[in-house]
Hints:
Layout: H1 24-34, H2 40-50, H3 53-66, H4 70-83, H5 86-94, H6 101-110, H7 114-123, H8 127-136, H9 140-150, H10 153-166, H11 169-179, H12 183-195, H13 199-209, H14 217-230, H15 235-242, H16 248-258, H17 261-270, H18 274-283, H19 285-288, H20 291-298, H21 304-317, H22 322-328, H23 335-345, H24 352-358, H25 364-377, H26 380-389, H27 395-402, H28 408-420, H29 424-433, H30 437-447, H31 450-463, H32 466-475, H33 482-491, H34 495-550
Helix pairs in contact: 1-3, 2-3, 3-4, 4-5, 4-6, 5-7, 6-7, 7-8, 8-9, 8-10, 9-10, 10-11, 10-12, 11-13, 12-14, 13-14, 14-15, 14-16, 15-17, 16-17, 17-18, 18-21, 22-24, 23-25, 24-25, 25-26, 26-28, 27-28, 28-29, 29-30, 30-32, 31-32, 32-34, 33-34
GO cellular component, one term: chloroplast
CHCR repeats: 31-172, 177-323, 326-469
Pfam families: Clathrin
Amino acid sequence: MRPRWTRRASGPSWPTPTWPTARVSDAIAAYLRAGDTSKHVEVVAKAHESGDYAELTKYLLMVRKRVKDPKVDTEIVHSYARAGDLPALEAFVAAPHLADLRAVGDRCAEEGLHDAARLVFATIPDYGRLASTLVKLHRYQAAVDAARKANSPRTWKEVCYACVEEGEFKLAQLCGLNIIVAADDLAEVAEFYTQRGHADELIALLESGIGLERAHMGIFTELGALYARHRPERLMEHLKLFAPRCNVPALIRVCEELELWRELTFLYVAYDEYDNALGVMVGHAAAAWEHVQFKDVAVKVKAAETLYKGISFYLEEHPELLNDLLKVVESRVDHSRVVDIMRRAGQLPLVKEYLVSVQKNDLQAVNEAVNELLVGEGDAAGLRDSITSYENYDALALAGRLERHEDTEFRRLAALIYKRNLKWHKAVALAKTDKLYEDAMETAAQSGERGIAEDLLRFFVEEGAHDRFAECLDRCRDLVKPDVALEVAWRNGLTDAVMPYLISVLRDYTTKVDTLVHERKDAQEASKLDEEAKKQQEQAANAYLHLNSYLALPAPTSNGAPSPPAFGDAAGFDRF
């Protein structure tokens, strides 16, 4: 039986071994001595099986001298790598050759020959594969340098993740900055860091990332979300600086989830969701409420109900600031409804300042609330100003309340209200009850009613107020008939008191008669002048008609010729 490595050859040949299992290295050496290159493919295959790469390298170098084949050069490089002869490998690839270095590099990487692969990929150069190889060699700084030259997202991720796994966070950050500028890759990097519990390092990465020229909304948003979850004390500052560059709805969801009410309010304001912002401040006042911000938001809310909830909130939680809030939202609220809210809460005095400021609108609810407060405070002067300046209120109801008031000044105001509403009898009666005779006489004079004035005269007589009787006659002289005044005075022995009135009346009557006489005389003279003027006009008109009769043309005959002038007409014949 022929041994496995025996062969026949006509020229220089590989000696046929006599042992049944010849060593591959000996066989390769035989081929080398014989200079036989014809079986180099088989030799390579057998050497791979046995691992005799040192002998194979020598053989292939001999073959290379005789055969120009890329496969031979490729196998030489691979053999150097398998033999671990890195200096020889480096020298070979530095010289001219036909080797497929990429294929060799891939084989070395697959076989775990990372040092050899590093040399090969560096020679090509293939910086992406070089970076991967350097990662496997734990040469992370060099891997980062290679990744920078490769500038491939895939390479950056590979090196970054490897650095994170090894705790090389500074190098990982250098890589990460080149990844997160792509919005699609940011989420992947953030998830990788987060799953491994490296939130602080991820925050540091994104804090560096927001300063990049290519920084995008995703970076600012993701950093905000990280602050919310891990560094809530830093979130507000971040929002104040970068809210316009964040995805606000996304951060709103995060803050709602984590119950960061102050930051949530800020985000709602930044997103022009003022109603929601006010709702958060009302619902979570301990964390979110701030007076100045509340006022700024209140003037911008769209839903009126939200605004009234805010007013009720202030009424319950911050009553001392309620007037300040109402002053700001004065143009946005229904003042009548505010009055109703305060009245039901029994807190009308709390908002007096606001009510006085909006009374200029002359609303009934506001006027009545102000009047009610002034009555309660005993401020008669203020109430007088109110009822004389603003008329839209239930006057008779207020007057009815005031006429029962224990203070005379308020009862005077009741009489004033009756007078302003033409309730003359009640006004005079109230003044008489309180012995406010000046007011009674003034009211009677303003009423223009003779009966009221005459009744007041009789009242003064009954009360024995003779001086008031004379004064009343003077003030109401246009209303009191002389015969009535004289009768009352005569019956009660007040002739002296009535004399000034009678003198004044007689003077008035005399003046009126004289005036009438003069007016009649003037009218008669004017009438006489008018009659004379009319006569003159008639004479002038008659003269004009008489003159026209001399100038009239003769009437035409039946055949169209003019008729002869009549005797005495102005056609050449004198009448005489």
